[in-house]
Design goal:
mainly alpha, two-stranded antiparallel sheet, 8 helices, globular
Length: 183
């Protein structure tokens, strides 16, 4: 059964990062808006290769999300559908859907602005500041996520990612992977 703590985390992610237009559900438009926001933050224009690559990656993620979470096939994923999907994931996190793995990889690459295979506090906090979180809160979240280390590798990130979706422990490092320092 889903705890209140896990539901709060899942809805935070849904509302802050997926429902870009604040409509109460997630659809293709939210992913197009996210691509615009990310590209603007990185200084990419709509014709740039990086913009096209970001949009393409996000639309593939949307297609995967929709195929598994949109239970009533109405072209939207509601908060209830979102929570149900992640609850199923928590029962067997080693068998993630392709889109979940793609999204994990996308977020890591987005945060690893230097391309060195690790995320540091500055890279992490600048991404989350662009999504409206306070930089101080994001730095605090990074320090909790990294357990005080200066960087987080791809391998570590993947474990933290899984932890976010399955743990009920409020102090687990994975809880801070999306830039919030407390729930």
């Amino acid at each position: 059964m889903l705890s209140d703590f896990r539901k709060k985390k899942l809805l935070y992610l849904f509302n802050k990062f997926f429902d870009s237009n604040n409509s109460g559900s997630v659809d293709k438009n939210d992913f197009e808006l996210a691509a615009e926001k990310i590209s603007k933050q990185r200084g990419w224009k709509s014709g740039d290769a990086q913009y096209k690559e970001t949009l393409s990656a996000l639309l593939k993620i949307w297609e995967g999300l929709q195929s598994v979470a949109d239970a009533d096939k109405d072209g939207q994923v509601t908060a209830d559908e979102w929570v149900s999907m992640w609850e199923a994931f928590a029962k067997n996190p080693s068998s993630a859907y392709d889109w979940q793995s793609q999204y994990c990889s996308f977020i890591f690459k987005l945060e690893d602005a230097s391309g060195d295979g690790a995320i540091d506090s500055e890279e992490f906090s600048s991404v989350y500041a662009s999504f409206g979180l306070s930089k101080d809160d994001a730095v605090s979240a990074f320090n909790k996520m990294s357990k005080g280390k200066s960087s987080v590798s791809w391998t570590e990130f993947q474990e933290l990612w899984k932890e976010y979706f399955v743990t009920d422990d409020p102090n687990a490092p994975g809880n801070f992977i999306f830039g919030k320092s407390s729930f």
